[in-house]
User: Fold these one by one.
Assistant:
Number 1:
Amino acid sequence: MKATENIAVLLIHCPDRVGILAVVTEFINQHKGNILYLDQYVNREEKVFFMRVEWDLTSFQIPRDKISEYFNTLIACRFEMNYRIHFSDQKPRMAIFVSKMSHCLFDLLSRHAAGEWNVDIPLIISNHPDMESVANMFGIAYHVFPITKENKAQQELLQIKLLEEHQIDFCVLARYMQVLSGDFIAHYPDRIINIHHSFLPAFAGAKPYHAAHERGVKIIGATSHYVTDDLDAGPIIEQDVTHITHKNNVEDLIKKGRDLEKIVLSRAVEKHIDRKILAYKNRTVVFQ
Amino acid sequence: MKATENIAVLLIHCPDRVGILAVVTEFINQHKGNILYLDQYVNREEKVFFMRVEWDLTSFQIPRDKISEYFNTLIACRFEMNYRIHFSDQKPRMAIFVSKMSHCLFDLLSRHAAGEWNVDIPLIISNHPDMESVANMFGIAYHVFPITKENKAQQELLQIKLLEEHQIDFCVLARYMQVLSGDFIAHYPDRIINIHHSFLPAFAGAKPYHAAHERGVKIIGATSHYVTDDLDAGPIIEQDVTHITHKNNVEDLIKKGRDLEKIVLSRAVEKHIDRKILAYKNRTVVFQ
Amino acid sequence: MKATENIAVLLIHCPDRVGILAVVTEFINQHKGNILYLDQYVNREEKVFFMRVEWDLTSFQIPRDKISEYFNTLIACRFEMNYRIHFSDQKPRMAIFVSKMSHCLFDLLSRHAAGEWNVDIPLIISNHPDMESVANMFGIAYHVFPITKENKAQQELLQIKLLEEHQIDFCVLARYMQVLSGDFIAHYPDRIINIHHSFLPAFAGAKPYHAAHERGVKIIGATSHYVTDDLDAGPIIEQDVTHITHKNNVEDLIKKGRDLEKIVLSRAVEKHIDRKILAYKNRTVVFQ
Amino acid sequence: MKATENIAVLLIHCPDRVGILAVVTEFINQHKGNILYLDQYVNREEKVFFMRVEWDLTSFQIPRDKISEYFNTLIACRFEMNYRIHFSDQKPRMAIFVSKMSHCLFDLLSRHAAGEWNVDIPLIISNHPDMESVANMFGIAYHVFPITKENKAQQELLQIKLLEEHQIDFCVLARYMQVLSGDFIAHYPDRIINIHHSFLPAFAGAKPYHAAHERGVKIIGATSHYVTDDLDAGPIIEQDVTHITHKNNVEDLIKKGRDLEKIVLSRAVEKHIDRKILAYKNRTVVFQ
């Protein structure tokens, strides 16, 4: 989904009923929309219908700024739908939070610099000055907010102010070693993506590689998830693992883990940018 | 390592000191042993040396029943070694414990029937009659010990008696849905292999697939480990995972998990039979 | 999809046009069918629409033996569809071909014996007597057809006769070490599933593990595919790999490969039984 | 292995004979070397012994510039050894070759910038100007050598001259879309690392993702290998794969493949920098 294309993305969830899929695809087809991708899923236990559809707007007969209104009136109300509509030329704006480690930051910025993602990155926020040189390499503004127990609430307010000034849509915690407060999180529900360096729910909290080594596991992992009030317990977006052996010490785990972390985080960010994720009851539906 | 071969396997761990590797390999070489495999590992944090060496006894000049004594006198004492010597023609004797699910049982018995493993399986123990037909297919004695809260201690005593009568070396819990008592476990330290249907330490205890589905993880796993007094917390031997999506319900996880469980359990059993595992401080060294 | 359920499965492919999805789902909904699973995919390069839909027939208003006729008249003709309809109570009948190795055979028969699959296995065909004991364990008829260059055509005719007498729907080559003739294959187009012990297209033909070892690869694999006239070149259903190292000799590869082969073959067989595969232009669409 | 440490690495291969391991470890131990890592492997079919040993030189009694001579005189001659000795403070010098794609280049340069690797990267060579901005970001000299059929031999001579001026030890082809001549390769035997975007030997040559899509495989891969005269047929260092489905078009494969390529290439480069690879008869021994 490139910014130069003229595409709409519709994400829906609602109580499952007969005919929803037919009604939605007809809405698009009869007004001359050309469906490019469609993925739907029905959670039969909870009787909930989920859908993501992407269509070309070139010949679509409903004016773009009326689509949401028409869809709401004609369909969404009838089916008690929760829905969001996005357009490909609305580039989301993303802020990166980082502390002292560069591997995730480099991976995110490299993909952005290579033009892989339809996203703007106006700024990077850190609690340490260490990563400023990396930000400079990529020409992105770097803001340091040192955090202490005393100033945390105040600093978070300043961070939020900065994010709002830059109209940030979502935040990516690229190994940001601070726990965000509930107040902060409430500003960006399902819009803060974290990478945790374990296969959650194992080894939540601090020093997961040390804990993994201590426990003697034979795999290590990384988990990207939306941040919620419960530490490391938000909706999981993506996970991956790699095998280790008894020969690997903690430093080996940290090193092997870096590759996992950056890939797992970047995959999650990409899906968020492409509006492929729907968080629902602390789980995610990740469309194809 | 086949029963028809004339091979010795030596497993060692001891405080790390200069020259251990040289001394042990010389002991074998100078008495005309032909080293077939050697794997060693030094845990540098804890300064412990681990080694497994396999050698052909055909021309070995120390009589087989004297090897342990000579090794002990000449080397082990000097280096404060813990060691075990096994011989390829001593087939270990394995008991399988099972409840109502057949997939792990079939996998173990199929490998045994195909002659893949140098092991004897004199008997299968269950708390239910369901798997008797499978045992019969493979011609293996099947003993049912129904377990209630009241009779558990008594039944375990009878199980142990039966295991001792059949000179069982180690037990494999092939989805045996009973928690063994500490007394039982004490009879077979590091010699009871369990398969748990999650990537431990996540989802220990009952119903891990339900818990995994509830948590919304994107991978599920299986873990084989030695049983200790702490439930699902013993030394891990082998782990593997597979990816799932939001589309998979609990039944899908159970189904996908079956393949993981049987392969992960059989790999652990094979390594145990081949004397490739050394449990140390609640972790395992798994030699190649 | 169990035999006891009353379910229809419809598989479609046709030129992509606007509204197909809506029309098909409406056909099911308006006649009171309850859609259980739906997966669709549009190949945009070739402009082909693929769909699999599973629905509960309990309240469906079109009599079961008229469904195909009605669907054809009302929809399929209009959209130039290729389609197949299956019913859950029509158990497919599967024949297994095997030579001398038991691991795939055991895995297939174990799953069948455990009731995992909605399939009948009336017979096993082999060019060697070796696996008869395994067939006997599971109570399945075992037919030996020794093959020589001279008698091959004649033996294949007898095999086909036997398959037809038993109304076999599809064949599974569980490490059957004979190349089937084009004539044989023509009787079962996209209905003979083979397991090849490499990640095709690498190492097609004989002795792939030897070739893999010689080439010094760091992964080995297994591939299940439908058999066509081109040896090891038919539509691929499923593939998986495992990592190896320089320490693994050919025997190690063969051993590690066995686990891959049996799992990859069984996964393919399961998807075939569940009517989830649509072969198209030497590729497969594998529905979820 | 950091430059600040005082460590020697010895790599050996020779005909397998009794006692080699003991003799080498004694040589190090008796002169007060402290062994940090040791990995050995015997190829029993070809009767060849391989070994890598890393030891701390702090108390080693043989002067560093005499170690090779002493080792040669006392041991290597006796056992017909091929051996190499490296020291941790001799930073290898690496040149990167790139064409127009940035993902591997970014990954290599990011790791270098983060100080992950004990290597110098004095220059980048390309046949196109496109990646100059990336080189500039990281402050590394960028040299463009446009290649045509006519000027290729001449340009390669200039490239070699440049590499020699900068005392380059090894070259990394980070998606360099030119085939190097045999003459060029002869200057850097087993010292040019390439990344090929398929699981070799499948899909050697041009456009492997197109070929993979055409063939309908269910996995795609990447392979890092040393470059030899045979295109894409040199000793394999590292391979990895990822699963795909029928829903993935060629663009999806290219995108998914990028992550594989960069990780697989970087892992190979890291092992080369750490002197963990021994190429032997078109295969690699990759030590731990």
Number 2:
Amino acid sequence: MAGNSFGQAFRITTAGESHGPGNVVIIDGCPSGIALSVDDLLFDLNRRRPGQSHLVTQRQESDVPEILAGVFEGRTTGTSLAILIRNEDQRSRDYNEIKDKYRPGHADYTYDAKYGFRDYRGGGRASARETVARVAAGVVAKKLIAEAFGGKVVGYVKQVGPIVARVDDPERVTLADVEAFPDGTPNLVRCPDRERAQEMIELIESVRKDQDSIGGVSEIVASNVPVGLGEPVFDKLKADLAKALFSLPAVLGVEYGVGFACATQRGSEHNDEFVAEESGTGVRRVVTRSNRHGGMLGGISSGMPIVLRAAIKPTSSLSREQRTVTNTGEGAIIRTKGRHDPCLLPRFVPIGEAMVAIVLADHYLRFRALRPA
Amino acid sequence: MAGNSFGQAFRITTAGESHGPGNVVIIDGCPSGIALSVDDLLFDLNRRRPGQSHLVTQRQESDVPEILAGVFEGRTTGTSLAILIRNEDQRSRDYNEIKDKYRPGHADYTYDAKYGFRDYRGGGRASARETVARVAAGVVAKKLIAEAFGGKVVGYVKQVGPIVARVDDPERVTLADVEAFPDGTPNLVRCPDRERAQEMIELIESVRKDQDSIGGVSEIVASNVPVGLGEPVFDKLKADLAKALFSLPAVLGVEYGVGFACATQRGSEHNDEFVAEESGTGVRRVVTRSNRHGGMLGGISSGMPIVLRAAIKPTSSLSREQRTVTNTGEGAIIRTKGRHDPCLLPRFVPIGEAMVAIVLADHYLRFRALRPA
Amino acid sequence: MAGNSFGQAFRITTAGESHGPGNVVIIDGCPSGIALSVDDLLFDLNRRRPGQSHLVTQRQESDVPEILAGVFEGRTTGTSLAILIRNEDQRSRDYNEIKDKYRPGHADYTYDAKYGFRDYRGGGRASARETVARVAAGVVAKKLIAEAFGGKVVGYVKQVGPIVARVDDPERVTLADVEAFPDGTPNLVRCPDRERAQEMIELIESVRKDQDSIGGVSEIVASNVPVGLGEPVFDKLKADLAKALFSLPAVLGVEYGVGFACATQRGSEHNDEFVAEESGTGVRRVVTRSNRHGGMLGGISSGMPIVLRAAIKPTSSLSREQRTVTNTGEGAIIRTKGRHDPCLLPRFVPIGEAMVAIVLADHYLRFRALRPA
Amino acid sequence: MAGNSFGQAFRITTAGESHGPGNVVIIDGCPSGIALSVDDLLFDLNRRRPGQSHLVTQRQESDVPEILAGVFEGRTTGTSLAILIRNEDQRSRDYNEIKDKYRPGHADYTYDAKYGFRDYRGGGRASARETVARVAAGVVAKKLIAEAFGGKVVGYVKQVGPIVARVDDPERVTLADVEAFPDGTPNLVRCPDRERAQEMIELIESVRKDQDSIGGVSEIVASNVPVGLGEPVFDKLKADLAKALFSLPAVLGVEYGVGFACATQRGSEHNDEFVAEESGTGVRRVVTRSNRHGGMLGGISSGMPIVLRAAIKPTSSLSREQRTVTNTGEGAIIRTKGRHDPCLLPRFVPIGEAMVAIVLADHYLRFRALRPA
């Protein structure tokens, strides 16, 4: 009820602040028998890690997790899993500025009003630092859906400021495309359209020089999802995915398939035609000729790729001066001297993927529970 | 887990199909002492009712609710409330066409795949008929938040096809503006911009003549919401509102404040400046000079109006021919002869409002539980 | 959170008062494809029905249920089921006596304190009338576990006052034994030990003549339960069963296997020895030679019969005078003139069985969700 | 759904095994502003600690907790709290015996059947070691209820084997009485009846010499509980308390007030008479002259002390030989060489108290949410 848990059958619960001892996640409902190691966790934790490139915050965290419970002889036991990621770079810096002043765009004011006081060190629980625990849980979810149905979740940066990547077939984008260019150069901005990626990097660098920040859009695609995930009415798959994405800091919009563009479409343009497809093994399966619906019909997965986009606002922390008030209502000027990302998009990708994977893992287990008697 | 409940402290559970005996909602967690009558329920039920104008489906339902439990001597008892709305217009028509064919854009195929069979009469549980139970529950939620903090939820149609209403100050739109024009003429399309409203009506009429349908966008505003509703991390207010909206049929996108437009903004353009405002009684309160954030910061209500928009796809049922397959994978032609809305927007308004009110009622009770010791 | 729902995967939500329009249950999470009719429901509803014999309350209710949703062509659809049982015998009698006076042993005082007022007609929501909805849901649960694993739940009266039935092998007691004696005479008290049954009937009749009531113990046995139901730690099967039983009115104690007698046992006397048993098909399965543990080890079903007992207090309503206070704190004398059971045990049997079946159905679905990947 | 969380508004989630790195609890829903230190936690952790006396297991654990999150400047922040207690005494001993053999009375067999394999080191997640996390959470719950309503939970040993303590007024037993005798001697067995306590100690010592174990009963009393806690129907306070107690290892019975003795009582003997009492400040409050009901009526706290008893089976691990089978179904002899308690009762007291306090904290927050509008 206090909002630190997510999911029903595959359920994660997190705790941790930006500058406390660390962040911990308990995963309840992971079936037994899944191979899991610290190295498995490190892959996505490194994709999310601060300091990974000059485009992101320079906070230094190794983010090496410790598995506290739930794994025995390299496999999950079926009982609750706990993973701890300690905070390391907790500079004993002067927090007095943000202690009393409300940073525009941040949760400082709403936390103070809600709780009567707050852990002001770097945003406390409201810091995006908490997403480290989600990414660790996302690795477990990814392993579960991969084993269970070959499920795959790939996210990438679709837009930074006015620069929009061209991605003709979202389903074909691979993790490799997102992480590196064909020549092996790291894809620092995680945009699979190389030309636009370069423009995005230049824009982010320029924005940072201006002591400013910039927004963008991330697209996430889940493929190999079986038909039938999602529950009618309130727990539609699109509803739970949206909740998952909007539970992330800075997300101001989510859309599926054609998304907001559906507003100007007619039914005859929008509806996707059903066709029967001969699969390799001669079994007929029903698919749609196009995927304007984004992979869910009636809130239930249709077997087509799930395609969604999340709009991410520009980072709220700015090195330049902003006007605000103090907690006693006095006018004030604030400059956020700390380390922050000029654009949240590159690090958002593994975080968004994690949330999508967690929802799919959850709905897969729910599907197992509720399938026909 | 099977998705027919929503909310945690103020929790609704529904059952009912399009052509079964009726739809029922149980509301658990409504505090005692709230005045509630059938007439209270009828107001919004009538706004949602089929057959209310020539713009909407001509299915005839009186939608008079029966309060089965939870009200004594005109007031809620604090124990669970149950409301039943019977179905009346269940034409004993030939359903054979949709029995075997998958209607494009509908849940016929996904339900068949998930459950092994389905109630094919008018969509069964996947029909928008189920929203009648939500609207009844929404009335109770609206009464609760009005009594508790003067909370008000007003929705309207912002866009139909390419026609976008001009609404300068969303917070000032009243229920009266939405339901009727200043001269008392009913506002059939529920768009407060009269000129655009007329254009929208003409567009809807023309689309219907084409045996087609059209999408749109609804904007919903919640005002007088106190600071502090919403929980950090997973149950952010924006996350629960988004889940609520996306749990409705046909919603393909949701955004807050500037929404997707944030992608092209810089932090210095996007952030809303905090200022201290002298209230009437001399108390200082913190507000923001602008409301690009849409009323929530860190996922917690900021005291500014909550402003959101939902993108609604064009009605899937079309009177014109569409190509599809049968449940045995044979190609087929389908024409939906039944009664359906050429545009979902006018009837969406009370439904969207209901979901927003339910989320606010829920988070208000959660706020009471978790406020500082 | 307001306590009108029970279960997680197989989840029931109820509403209804003693003298309102009726009682309704929504069952969420029942898999599709289970045959269900009004007649199926009537069997246990009749076992619970008031007026079924001279031993129980003479309130007249036909308790014929209406299935409002979730069944199509005689089978469950997989979406939410709703069942309504209307109240009929709502005598327009003078409630003024209990309106202002707190009946000893009842919830009148605690409801008034909690809610500020109460539906005083026959106890309102606190009346055992609410169990009619549980029994309807229990029928669905019994059908589910019977289909899924041949699961069977049989309850009976073990003790009334000082009279304790002799039941040598709880697992062998059948529904037939409980409902009638070998000669076909109805077993009004639902005790399978015929001699003690006769004594119990005489005791109940004598207690009623004294305008008094009497307590007792019911024993419930679940058999054919597969190994592995129940979750470690908080949702142990014994924990959820106990919650289910204690959620019923008048239950003051619950115990499993040897129960409270374990306090005087040594480990060497108490532990049940494991042995391997050749099943009919030559498969070896592990069983225990004795069943002092009551069918659960570590909170998880062991495959042995689950045996539990619930202690039921004497009916609180008495026709004789009792001393109490009014809601303004004045001393008063109260006599409950209404119709009530002199002993709750005979009608408790189907109610207790229903709750056990609901827990098993729930844990069976949870088991399906969480079984090894 | 996998059972590692408990509570709704005040909700704890735990992870950890007997011989893994440690045990962790996340507490979600603790209001902000409660003072909390490691020392606060240590008090009850020490009461539960192995090795505290010669009567209990000699496993050596310092059980010093680390607060990982949720406390800032010595007070709870209102966001999720995490506490880690590392395991220290994880002897690298030969587990081969229990690896393949099913210990009678333990969860070895049911875990193997459920999960396909198990962490066999000392019982893994099924070990009573997991209760260390509950006791830490219980300290937070005790602080919350003490601040909120002066709530107090005191448990003690009522019975060991045939020795039953005489406790005339359960409400008057203090923590001091339970922890030490009037002369300051530590009360190793936690029984407030000194004479019986001495007999219990002798019995436990003798049982241990016999390489055997012994059961018992613990009584727990909660006082100063306000009227109105607990929800009607399924979440009755007695139901949630029973679930809490039965979720503990080795509990085979729970009863309230007169408990199972109600079976032989008549209503006229059992019902507690209401009387109005002048409080110190002249306010009249309603109480009952006796407390056979055990502090709850209709499942809702009546304002009288809550009195419950739990029956605890004799420790399953025995140093003497027991017959059993291996995981391949072969007959075998087992002797548990490890360290274990000959009687669970002395260490049960703080564990049982913790669970009662957690339920009261949860229902108190729920009460705040749902009180009259």
